[in-house]
Amino acid sequence: MPPLEYENLNYEVKDGKAYITLNRPEKLNALSSALQEEISHAMWEADNDTRVHVAILQGAGRAFCAGYDLTPAPADTNETYAEIYRSRVSFEDDAWRLEQAQRQRMAIWDMHKPVIGRIHGYCLAGGTDLVLLCDIIIAADDTVIGFPPVRAMGTPPAHMWLYHVGPQWAKRMLLTGDSITGADAAKIGLVLQAVPYDDLDTVVEELADKMAMIDVDLLASQKRIVNLGLEMQGARTLQRLAAENDARAHLAPSVKEFGKISRDQGLKAALEWRDTKFGDGRATPDYQARKEEQAVRAKAARA
User: Fold this and answer.
1) What three-state secondary structure class fits 12?
2) Which of 136, 130, 106, 140 is nearest to 208 (CA)?
């Protein structure tokens, strides 16, 4: 695959590592269609580059990725295009589009070389669809991780939650849309390790440097045997089912209501309608205990 001039990400190769950096910081690296295409291309470019042993997927600015870009697309004035190609009018069209995006994401899973996900700030919705396909995830301990769209917009069109944390925590996250900190995510196995943000680069680099010293053929063998084991447990089939279930979920009345509010009052109003009633939306008892302790300390300081 020939090199590409990327518009939405930065791609750099150095010391055996490919740095793939989502670069829409003004949008908190929200995933547009163009960015998703570029991520897939960059992953295969890294896999094909004999200088690269490991890829690092990260985000520029204040967040790894705050989700899918929900900015309404301009009306398509090309009538021929609209007549020939699929829209999202029917269930089948919706499922087809979701599977198309899934094939792009699965480059992370299918490429032979390992991918480290480096996350900070926000890793929400589409951000989790990306990073949970990585081989290892290192998080800043204050990263906010979750899939709030399950409250009124659909289901994750990728589903690695079950394989990372088991059925109960997967349900705890996806039946509420609550989020979790990087520190608490490490405790339940959603990420491998959480560290203070100031230490994040050092920890990721140390891990990547170790991989860069190992023969690529050996790295590929280790990655692929684990992923094939997960496929024997149904992981790839479950991704297809996740996309189809998201299309099914898009038929729910609350999804239509969210869309109506977004069209009539704007996206901000729709997100407030979706999320405000859930409070701070944090999932873990540890977080709630820390919050109560902080409140007690603040009250004592004011006394």
Assistant:
1) strand
2) 136
What number of H helices and E strands is found in the chain?
13, 9
Angle between helices 253-265 and 267-275 (to 10 degrees): 140
What predicted TM-score, i.e. pTM, was given to this entire model? 0.89
Fold of 9-254: 2-enoyl-CoA Hydratase; Chain A, domain 1 (3.90.226)
Residue type, 145: I
Report which residue type is found at 244: E
- The residues, any chain, with a CB within 8 Å of residue 303's CB and separated by 6 or more, are none
Report, as ranges of residue numbers, the positions in the chain whose pLDDT lies below 70: 1-4, 72-88, 283-291
How far does Cα 193 stand from its chain's mean position? 17
Handedness of CA 204, 205, 206, 207 (dihedral sign): positive
At 125-172, the pLDDT tens digits run: 999 999 999 999 999 999 999 999 999 999 999 999 999 999 999 999
